[in-house]
Design brief:
It comes from Xenorhabdus thuongxuanensis. Its EC number is 2.1.1.72. The protein has 276 residues and is an alpha/beta fold. The chain is built from 10 helices and 9 strands.
C-alpha cells in the first residue's frame, strides 16, 4: 500500500503508485516541477529531491512543516477545532483569502500554511481551486469528521530533510536539472476537447502542454536525463510524436462530473536516460 500524503488531492498519484514506480529509474535526485500532494516523493527513496510548484500556498505548506513541524501541528490542530460546521469553514476561508500573499515573516507563513491544510481537509474532494482574483473558492465538503494527518505530517518532515522545496514555474525548475537527475512531471491533465485546465491562478492550455513536452524532449536530448510524465490519454499523440514510449494504464477515478468512478485510462510517457 502506498504511503499516505498530508493533503487530500484530486489526481493524487497514490492511486497508481504500483504502476508508476517501475518507470522511475534510480538517480542522484528526483526533480518534480508539479509537486501536488508529494505522493511520489513520499513513496520513493532518492538520495535527494527538488520539489517545486507554481502554487506558492502549496510550497509554503511544505516549507513550514520542514522548518518547524511541532509548531505547524499545534497551529493546524487549533484551526481544525474551529471548523465545526459550514459557516465556520467559510469564515476560515475568508480569513485565508484576506491574508493574501504571505510575507517573509515565519509566523505569517505558518498561519497561512496551517489554514491551507485545514481548508484542504474540509473542502470538497480535496480540490485546490482559485478564482480570477487569486482567492481560494472550493466549497465546504460536508465531511463528518475530517482526518487530521499528524502521522503523515511527521513522515513528510522527515523525508523533506532531503528535499529542496521551491515555489517555481515548471520552466524555471527544468532549468535546474543536471546530469544524474530523474525528472517526473504530473501536469494538469490535457482534456479530449483541448480545453483549459486550471493550474493555480491561471490556466494550463494545450499550448502549455506542447511547450512542456517539447522542453522535456530537448532536456533529455541535451543531457540524457530520464523523463517520466503522467497525463490523460488525450496527451498520447503529443508525447508519442516526440518519441516518448507510451504505457497505458487504468487509474481509479477520484472526481468525475457525472458521478462515474469507474477506472479511467491514463498514460505514463517515458524517455529512458542515457550517458555519454
Amino acid at each position: 500500500m502506498a504511503n499516505k500524503t498530508i493533503l487530500k488531492w484530486a489526481g493524487s498519484k497514490n492511486r497508481i503508485m504500483d504502476k508508476l514506480l517501475p518507470h522511475l529509474p534510480a538517480g542522484r535526485r528526483l526533480v518534480e516541477p508539479f509537486a501536488g500532494s508529494c505522493a511520489v516523493m513520499m513513496n520513493t527513496d532518492y538520495p535527494a529531491y527538488l520539489i517545486s510548484d507554481a502554487n506558492a500556498d502549496l510550497i509554503n505548506l511544505y516549507q513550514s512543516i520542514k522548518s518547524d513541524c511541532d509548531q505547524f501541528i499545534k497551529e493546524a490542530a487549533n484551526w481544525f477545532e474551529f471548523v465545526l460546521n459550514k459557516n465556520e469553514f467559510y469564515k476560515l476561508r475568508d480569513v485565508f483569502n484576506f491574508s493574501g500573499e504571505f510575507s517573509g515573516n515565519f509566523a505569517n507563513k505558518l498561519s497561512r500554511s496551517s489554514l491551507f491544510l485545514t481548508l484542504n481537509r474540509h473542502c470538497f474532494n480535496g480540490l485546490c481551486r482559485y478564482n480570477s482574483k487569486g482567492e481560494f473558492n472550493v466549497p465546504f465538503g460536508h465531511y463528518k469528521k475530517p482526518y487530521f494527518p499528524v502521522a503523515e505530517i511527521w513522515a513528510f518532515a522527515e523525508k523533506a530533510e532531503k528535499a529542496d522545496l521551491l515555489p517555481l514555474e515548471w520552466q524555471d525548475t527544468l532549468s535546474l536539472v543536471d546530469y544524474g537527475d530523474v525528472v517526473y512531471c504530473d501536469p494538469p491533465y490535457l482534456t479530449n476537447e483541448g480545453a483549459f485546465t486550471q493550474y493555480h491562478h491561471s490556466n494550463f492550455s494545450h499550448t502549455a502542454h506542447e511547450e512542456l513536452a517539447e522542453n522535456l524532449r530537448a532536456l533529455h536530448d541535451e543531457i540524457g536525463v530520464p523523463v517520466t510524465v503522467s497525463n490523460s490519454v488525450a496527451a498520447k499523440e503529443l508525447y508519442s510524436d516526440l518519441s516518448f514510449t507510451i504505457h497505458e494504464i487504468d487509474a481509479p477515478r477520484t472526481i468525475a462530473a457525472n458521478g462515474n468512478r469507474q477506472p479511467a485510462k491514463e498514460i505514463i510517457a517515458v524517455l529512458e536516460g542515457y550517458h555519454d
